[in-house]
Structures are given as C-alpha cells and as structure tokens.
Amino acid sequence: MRAAFLDRLSEHLLRGLYSAALYLLLPVTLYHLVWRGFRQRAYLLRWHERYARYGDAAPPPDGCLWVHAVSVGEVNAAAPLINALLRDHPHRRVLVTTITPTGSERVAALWQGRVSHVYLPYDLTGAVQRFLSHFRPSVGLIVETELWPNLLFACRDLGVPTFLVNARLSERSLRGYRALRPLVGRALRTMRRVAAQSAADAARFVQLGARDDQVEVCGNLKFDLRIDPDIDRFAAEFRRRVPGRPVWIAASTHPDEEAAVLGIDRHLRQRWPDLLMLWAPRHPERFRGATQQAIDTGLRVATRTLTVLPDAEDQVFVIDTLGELMLFYACADVAFVGGSLQPVGGHNLLEPAAVGTAVVTGPHLHNFADIAAQMQQADAVLVEVDASSVASALEALLGDRVRCDAMAAAARALVEQGRGALRRTLALVRPYLS
C-alpha cells in the first residue's frame, strides 16, 4: 500500500508541475494561433474549440466513438478504421478530432458530414475535462504518436478506454520525450493497448514506459489505404490531354525544398523539353507561392482549381487541392516524395506505390523508416542523399521504362502483402465499441 501511495503521489506531483507549466504558457497558445493565422486564415477561426468551450451546442445524445488524428497524414491513415466504424456501427456517432485546419478540411472532404469534427483542445486540465464531459466518448482511438498526459489521465479517471492505434515512435521522437518520460510513460500505461506499426516501434514504446503486455504489433493502417475505383479512368483522361509526354510529380514538398524541385525540373527538362511536372506542395498556404515560383522561372503554369487538367502546352501543373494526390500519382511516370530533402521525416511512400508509380525520395525518412526499409529491400524505392542525386535517379527512371515498371510492380506487391493492419486493430478494439 505504501508503494501504491507513493506512486500515486508521484503522479500527482508530475501532473501538477506539467499543468502549471501549461497554464503559464497559455498566452503563447494565443500568439501561436495568431501567428499561424497570418499564413493560414483558418487558424483564426473556431478558437472556442481549442479551449473546449462549446456554448449551447448540443452534445451527442448517446455519446460517441472518438478518433483523434492530428493532421492530414494521420486522417488519411485512419480513414480505413473510421470507414469500418461507420460501416459496423451505423447508429453510433463518430467524432474525429484534429489539431490542424488542413486535417479538418480533409475530414470534411472524406466524410461530408457523416462524422462530427472539432479541434482537440489544448492539454489543459479544465479543457480536456470539458471536452470529455461534453462529447462523452465510449472509446478513444488515438492515431500514431499523440500522447497528451492530461487528456489520457482524464480519460482514465472518467472511465474512457483509450487505444493508441497505428502507433509509431521514431528514435528521434523517443529522444524528444526524454524530459517528460516519467510523466508520459505513466500516461501511456493508462491506455488499454498500443497497436504498434512494427516490432521496432513496439520496442520503443516499451522504452518510453508501456508495459510489455500492453503493446502488440498490428502493422501499418496505411497499407490498407483505399484506391479510388475511378482512378484508371481519371489517369486515362489525363493522358489523353498530354499524349506521349513524360510526367513526373513532386509531392508533399516543403518550403525549403521548393528551389530544389525547380532545379530538378530544370535538369530533367534539358533532356525532355516536353516534360510535364505535377507539383503538390504539402501545405495549402504554399499553393500560391509555389505557383508563382514556377511562373517566375519562365514556365507555363496551370493549376487544378483553375484549369482542372493540364493541356499540351502546360509545363507545370500545381495540384492546389486536398485529397486528390493519389489520383495524380497514377498519372505520373515517376514520383518524388518530399519532406525528405530537409529533416522533416518524409511522407507517405505507400500512396504512389499502391497505384503503381516508381518512387524516389530524399534521405530524411525517420517518420517512415520501417516502410522505407521494406521498400528498399523489395527494390521498390530509390533513397537518394541530396537533390542532385534525386534528379539523377528520376532521369534514370524516366529513361528506362523496364526498370521503372519493375519498381512499380514491386511496390504494388509490397502494399498488397502489407494489408491486414485494419483487421488486427479492429480485433483489439472491438470489445469496447459496443
């Protein structure tokens, strides 16, 4: 009993210090919202949700099934799971929370009102308690690495079972939790199960503080991604508009990669003057800037929102929409996946792989290390050290149709073999969904 008492006392002290620090930093949250709002106006809206103030809004009459996915990538990863909840529990309300406006927009685009959405409040004790009291979730499915201590402790105290699904934890993230590891480890142990993407992720969660019997390797939900049934028709229409032209796509690029992307395109265009580049910046606030940069280089530029599809004269086509990236991956001969030439950690390599497009990426892949390793082992991706070698790899693939097709076939086969994480994850959480 003494040990249990001391453990509980230690938890209260850690929680108290953490919560006090958050309340002292409360003005910073306002500054952050305003600062982000200058770049993306959606951050200036719906502030009441950030602090769990819902006014007279009616709560779900029978509670809800709650899924938290921080932004676009996590929403896409969780989509198979959310679709399964909607299919298997048609009379339950599904609540999806995000932190970013782009995540909110993706939720709206995917489910068009079939799920509820609010922003997850800041991890303040009062805010998370108001959030849970208002929505009364019967279960919480938290995607990937969102470990907010006050939220998890409040779920435990209110009897809301929580699961970490599609869970991943890179070595870098593990080091980042070093200062808060005693508190985060305790919060992690309040969860019913951790459904890890890989054995390496599972081991790192145990290092962070999870119990061995709490963690299970379920695979990556991203392998269970849905392919639009109209994708072949879309790609055929695209190719009809630009017959015979070589096409490459620069996807999910970040601001510091934009100059490199234009340099790669310039290099490739020396060999293929009729080259068409598809360009999908990662963040909507960069759509206009990337478009202008391409125009400033003297290229003829079109955009998805203005011209729908490129024509025979367009040299760059900017995909300034959300949720259509896989459609355009299917239109390209080769793909460069961004967030990898700077230490962002990379983005989803499986999307181009699933539609049969050869993939090239940069060296910074710590967010997708396991997937990148599997794809490298299967000869399904080229991982290059810098922008110059990315350009050379893209040039080699564009000039070698046989190798390009072989890489695409290997990537597609890997995706098919990796499916099954959804079934294993549902088996873990199903007893808590009724």
Automatic annotation (TrEMBL):
The chain crosses the membrane at residues 20-38. Its main location: membrane. It catalyses: lipid IVA (E. coli) + CMP-3-deoxy-beta-D-manno-octulosonate = alpha-Kdo-(2->6)-lipid IVA (E. coli) + CMP + H(+). It is found in: Cell membrane. Pathway: Bacterial outer membrane biogenesis; LPS core biosynthesis. Involved in lipopolysaccharide (LPS) biosynthesis. Catalyzes the transfer of 3-deoxy-D-manno-octulosonate (Kdo) residue(s) from CMP-Kdo to lipid IV(A), the tetraacyldisaccharide-1,4'-bisphosphate precursor of lipid A. The keyword Transmembrane applies. Belongs to the glycosyltransferase group 1 family. This is 3-deoxy-D-manno-octulosonic acid transferase. SUPFAM superfamilies: UDP-Glycosyltransferase/glycogen phosphorylase (SSF53756). Pfam families: Glycos_transf_N (PF04413). The keyword Cell membrane applies. Residues 46-224 form the 3-deoxy-D-manno-octulosonic-acid transferase N-terminal domain. Keywords: Cell membrane, Glycosyltransferase, Lipopolysaccharide biosynthesis, Membrane, Transferase, Transmembrane, Transmembrane helix. GO terms for molecular function: Kdo transferase activity. Its EC number is 2.4.99.12. It comes from the Bacteria.
